[in-house]
Amino acid sequence: MDLGVLFGFIGTWLLIIATLLMGGSITTYIDVPSAVLVFGASITILFFAMPAKYVKGLVGVTKKAFFYKPTQIDKLIEDMVSFAEIARRDGILSLENAVKDIDDPFIVQGIQMAVDGTDPELIEQVMLNDLDNLAERHESGKFIFDTMGKYAPAIGMIGTLIGLVAMLADLSDPAAIGAGLAVALLTTLYGAIVSNAVAGPIADRLSKRSAEEVMYKTIIVKGVMAIQSGDNPRVVEQKLRTFLPPSERAQEEEAA
Using CA atoms, how far apart are residues 22 and 182, in angstroms rounded to an integer? Predict the structure, then answer.
C-alpha cells in the first residue's frame, strides 16, 4: 500500500472527527435514518446510473485505489535497453529466451510478436489496442466514484428537504424546531462527506494511477517498436528517457 493514501485517508478522517468533537458531543452528528438514506442511496444510485456489471466491480476498484504497486519507470527503461542490447548483439531471435524471465505479460506479448517477425504496424496496432482497452477499463472504474461523488450531495439535500417539510408540518412544539432542523441538516453533511472525503479523492487517485500505468505501457510499446526496428541501445534509452521529467533525467545523467 502507498503510505501516502494511508496518511491522506486517516489524516482527513481524524481531522473531520476532531472537528466534530470540538463542536460538541459526537452523538450530535449521528442520525441513523439520515446515514442510511445518504450512504445507502449513494450505492443504489449507481445501479440506476450505469449497468450493474460495472457496479459489481466496486470492491475491486476500491482495492486498486488503496493497494497498488507503484510503477518503476527507471527499472522498465533499464530492462528495455537490456533487451535492445541482446537483440543488437545476438539477434532479435535471442530474445525468445529472455522473455521467459519477464513477469509483465504486456512486455512478453510485444517482444514475442517481434521475435515471431510480425509486421511492425500490426505489433503497434495490437499493443495500442490493449492500451486503449486498459484506459477504458480504468475510466469505467473511476466513473463509479465520479457518479457517487456527483449524486451524494444531492441525496443529502433531498434528505434535508424531507426533514424540513416534516419539521414545518408540525410547529406545535417550538422547542423541538432547533433539534429537528439540526437533524435535517445532517443529511447534507453526510452527502458532503461522501462526496469530498470518500468518492472524490478515490476517483482522483484512480485517475492518477491510470495515467501512470498508461505511461508505463506506452514506454513498453515504444521500447518494443525501437527494438523491433533494430535501434542502437543508446538510441532506445534516449527515446524512452524522454518520458521522464527533466529533473529525473538530470539526476540519471549525473549518476551515470
Answer: 17
